[in-house]
């Protein structure tokens, strides 16, 4: 059975207090998070020893009759070094806090805790785990995804030359061209490969949170800072810190980053003691940093500090010979994830793909192949089966209605309801207007909520299909929080593949 069909991994709870386990189980169930509970650390370790996959995050008490949470943390980190572990205790002393963080804990939760704050912390741990899982899957496919075109051979040679040192590297390239894959390859082949690879997208984090994400914070540094938290620089100590979309970093944080790159020291938010972290910094951007320097939006001294070695990734349109092997790889990958037979491209379909501009680069090709795995009607993909953007036509109305037949039905409904001809362009907006007119003419109550629910269901399914069922990525691309996405999936019945609407891919796209 394909891995995705098993559903999401649970969050493990290890605590000898049944009331704590009960509260956390119920709170996580309301968020759609599966759980598994243990009375003591030995039970959890025994479950791992039996060959279970393990959790996506672990919450453990620190002092239990059956063993220490810190000992459990140490043994878990040996087996699952990237698993986020939250340590909780009623003994909020400095020694326990320091020991937990030195052992690699994701964060620290003091009892008694506010359930909402605890769930916020657990949610962040789950998101970190899912980010790492997605990144590992992509890293495993890095050789195929990077391609074999002559334009990429210089990239391969540069990775070989740069991987053995610790020099700062600036990777430039358009969005979706694979900058993080190159950063991971530099890390994987470097002497720091045994250390952590920590990635942060500086454009995806709100300005007021970015400083804490990068440098950490002390307990009480601001409202909601209930415990000390290590930042990404500390987490990357001994490894590599990847700063994606560095061109979007606020100017005031650029000053702090420059200081860290200059002397290797920084302060946590609210802290007074300098912290030293030895991490190699790799930065990436799709922006023209020289222009941003001229515009006064990027510090010239930081640009020169980062621009020690620059590595440019060519866009996919400059290496069209890579499209065929990449498409074959992505179609096979999508087929494995969805548990179906892989599809192949007919010569005419491949020619059309090779002539496409791919503004979204390799990521767009990957999403197209996943879309084809779900939507193409036959094993061999013909040119007519390619998505509308590749064929150079407007989006078909199937994103609101269900296929071409439904679009024609909507046009007929629009004409009969309004006495007017449908809009000339068969766009999804026209289909939406036609469906609204049909429902209004019929006198259906609650048209607003009904159509919003249907539109949201389609948006969520499209995002989950594009991200291979990964909720954290789907939520990010939709611009909503993961908890909002989880709630909407439950409200719309998408867990069951039944939102009350006909959807040809409902049973094929696994939500995990």
Write up what this structure looks like.
The protein is 48% helix and 11% strand. It has 22 helices and 16 strands. The strands form 5 sheets. The protein has a 5-stranded parallel sheet with strand order 2-1-3-6-7, with helices on both faces. The longest helix has 26 residues.
Q: Write down the domain tally.
A: 4
Per CATH, the superfamily of the largest domain is P-loop containing nucleotide triphosphate hydrolases
* Number of DSSP E strands: 16
Structural class: alpha/beta
Report the CATH topology name of the largest domain. Answer: Rossmann fold
Instruction: Based on Cα principal axes, name the global outline.
Output: globular
Spatial order of the strands in the main sheet? 2-1-3-6-7
Cα-atom radius of gyration: 25 Å
List keywords for this structure.
512 residues, alpha/beta, Rossmann fold, Helicase, Ruva Protein, domain 3, five-stranded parallel sheet, 48% helix, disordered C terminus
At a glance:
The chain contains 22 helices and 16 strands.
How is the secondary structure organized here?
Blueprint: E1 11-14, H1 18-30, E2 35-38, H2 41-49, E3 57-61, E4 63-64, E5 67-68, H3 69-79, E6 85-89, H4 94-102, E7 107-110, H5 115-140, H6 142-146, H7 150-162, E8 169-172, H8 179-188, E9 197-201, H9 207-215, H10 232-235, E10 240-244, H11 251-263, E11 265-266, E12 275-276, E13 280-285, H12 289-294, H13 300-306, E14 309-312, H14 323-338, E15 344-345, H15 347-354, H16 361-375, E16 380-381, H17 388-391, H18 403-418, H19 428-442, H20 447-466, H21 471-478, H22 482-491
Parallel strand pairs: 1-2, 1-3, 3-6, 6-7, 8-13, 8-14, 9-10, 10-13, 15-16
Antiparallel strand pairs: 4-5, 11-12
